[in-house]
Write a structure and sequence with these properties.
alpha/beta, Rossmann fold, seven-stranded parallel sheet
Amino acid sequence: MRQAEPVPESTLKKRVLLTGATGYIAGQLLPEFRERYDLRLVDVRPGDGVEVADLLAGAAGDLGRLFEGVDVVVHTAYHRPAGDDPQARYDGERRNVDMMQRVYQLALDHGVRRVVAASTNQAAKWYEQPYFQGLRDRVTPDDYPRPDNFYGWAKAAYESLGFLYACGSLGRKLEVIQLRIVVPREIDAGKFVDQPAHRYVRELAGYISERDLRQLFARSIEAGDIDDEHGVPFHIFYGVSDNARTFWSITNARRVIGYQPQDDSERRFAADIARLLGG
């Protein structure tokens, strides 16, 4: 078996600020990131090596020191809205948009080169309706964002704000990558026994393994020139593994940052697929 190539010295020394460091996505990244990068961890909750800070309510002067000397900010922090009515959801997600903007601005002000943010497929989730109806086979990052909930709307706002900071109209160009993560968890087939088959197929199409998730973030952090054809360092990549049942395109992630996912839900869950889908 071919041995993995050693991580370059320059990569080991890269200073990365990880927000939301006690959260779910960060928990999948940290086992590798602690070895790979010079990490600075931030969250509103305490944790191992985590500096407690509120990116939304904290004073800009106090927060600025967290961004000093940082190469890349990986933003996974998320404020969960309280309440289920539309106004509460909107108000809660507005706080997340405000926090994302604050991260962009602090990064711009303090010389950070790049921001890599955890977005979601829900920024374009409406496209799943024609997919379920057999009217669409694929959605790409270039398709117009079409969220069907406030969570997806907020993430779409993350993305358009990111382009604003990347295009240079506010001064220097801040490099921005948004990762539309789809299904970052192991799939429990038992939850789909009484569901329409296409619901289970959707999970298989969107699955991303932990090692592929780590690779996607690492490639986003470490990639060199990410300027697009117009000279703007901005990209949206879907976060899925190399799944045989695919709906979300990762063509641009393969091309721009060299993403090479190693896993396929068809193989990972083969026994469950045979039992649930009959082969």
